Amino acid sequence: MARTATTAAAAPARRAVGRPSKGAIKKEAIVAVALEQIDKVGVYAFSLRDVARSLDVYPATIYWHVNSKDALLADVAGAVMQEVTPPRGKSSWQVWMRDLFFRYRAAVQKHPNVAQLIGAQLVSNSSLRTDLIDGVLIALLEAGATEENLLEAYNCVISSLIGFMTMELAPMPSEEVSQWADALKERVRSISPLDHPTLARYLPKLANKAFIVRWQNGTEVPLDSSFSANVEIFIAGLEGFLQKKTRAVAASETRKPRS
Amino acid sequence: MARTATTAAAAPARRAVGRPSKGAIKKEAIVAVALEQIDKVGVYAFSLRDVARSLDVYPATIYWHVNSKDALLADVAGAVMQEVTPPRGKSSWQVWMRDLFFRYRAAVQKHPNVAQLIGAQLVSNSSLRTDLIDGVLIALLEAGATEENLLEAYNCVISSLIGFMTMELAPMPSEEVSQWADALKERVRSISPLDHPTLARYLPKLANKAFIVRWQNGTEVPLDSSFSANVEIFIAGLEGFLQKKTRAVAASETRKPRS
DNA sequence: ACCTGAACACCGTTCAAGT
DNA sequence: ACCTGAACACCGTTCAAGT
């Protein structure tokens, strides 16, 4: 992989520049084991010493291949992000973007515990997925983005893309889950219809399927229809945002829109 | 506060039911100190032993007032979430919702490190902010939500509300930030205009202001205009989503819309 | 270049025992 | 009811030293 060379270029020459030299293999093994561990025990309980144990080496060994725990986590996030960017086909930007959203969902559903890494942590330095950024920009320009609103539109794409899944797969309070679930259910049951008639009325519809009122996360209760809704809402909203010309002008002068 | 009594009701009677008895004061002091610590060192470096030191007590003392580190973090998140729900005034649902978004932003900007707690962690059990959920439901019903789409719309509100800020305030790789920033800047500079012409072209516009291509987070470089765009995109998209009747019917029969 | 072996300075949590 | 004092089983990271 060319990535080894790229990394070495930026790094303080900690590794030989030329061949992988079996070191590259070890590095990827470490990332693979780390991903396995995270899948198994979650980001919270994940430890470098565990991956060292899995590889039958001393903890310090890990540090020859990787600069820190954070750097390893970044690599793990990058690994999961591979292949989410759809190929730039002949389809419309809406189709491409929908594809992007669902590919991200599929990727992160395979490794649910990595969602919080991508969403809330580094976001995601080393994994600077050039093709993703490029693809989004191209789609946005095709959608009519201008110099004035490209940045904003881009940020909205990324946050919508990642935000929902981060929440859908957010880890539930560890350990005594059932006990906690019972407590939450009880609280849900005890909501006063007098103080909160609307909430009380619709609670049965929301229970365990709506953010804040659920006791299982997306690995056990996937929120498919809500995710789809989010995609459609975002794309429709984005269309409107990119169509409208500079707000102040449009509002004050009321020109004929060139749709 | 009545909250003490409520907590005791659900909990296994670990505290006397009647008066605060000075214990309630201690509990709130713990949460306050924890919030201070998190503001100072971040969620990652936050430790129970530090709050114990700040309060001049033994670590074990904390455990009389709080069940676990996670529970404490949940309480901290709850504290920050207080007062984000706007009062249910006479305004339109759009105005109320915009208000909600900007109040949340203001609240979490005061405690940026808590954003990842709210976004990626528990979401947010104990802090089950009844008034928030109720308010969102009321707004959605006013907007025309039906039995069929209320759940989806609700989930989209929550994820849009929280998702953007979680990313805007996501912690940058700790410690040697400047070193890391330089590396990222270098990589940004070295992007090949041949492989990625679009990206290369617009990179100056994105640099340090766009997700994935920034080396400072929202505490140092706030993304105000992008946040506003996100609010407008979401609300506009939501309007469309709630307006449209059952998709299949509308598509196949092409009835006159009763707008 | 890659790994060992050991150490440092921390953690969260538990538990008997005090008052 | 509330806190002490000490212990248990861990961490991430560093560093001389080996090969």
UniProtKB/TrEMBL annotation, chains A, B:
Annotated signal sequence range: none
Transcription regulation found in the keyword field: yes
InterPro entries: Homeodomain-like_sf, HTH-type_TetR-like_transc_reg, HTH_TetR, Repressor_TetR_C, Tet_transcr_reg_TetR-rel_C_sf
Keywords for the protein's UniProt record, in alphabetical order: DNA-binding, Transcription, Transcription regulation
Domain of life: Bacteria
Residues in HTH tetR-type domain copies: 24-84
Entry keyword annotation includes DNA-binding: yes
UniProt DNA-binding region: 47-66
Record-linked Gene3D superfamilies: Homeodomain-like, Tetracycline Repressor, domain 2
SUPFAM superfamilies, alphabetized: Homeodomain-like, Tetracyclin repressor-like, C-terminal domain
Biological-process GO terms, alphabetical: negative regulation of DNA-templated transcription
Pfam families xref list: TetR_C_1, TetR_N
Single GO molecular function: DNA-binding transcription factor activity
Protein name as catalogued: Transcriptional regulator, TetR family
Organism in which the protein naturally occurs: Paraburkholderia phytofirmans (strain DSM 17436 / LMG 22146 / PsJN) (Burkholderia phytofirmans)
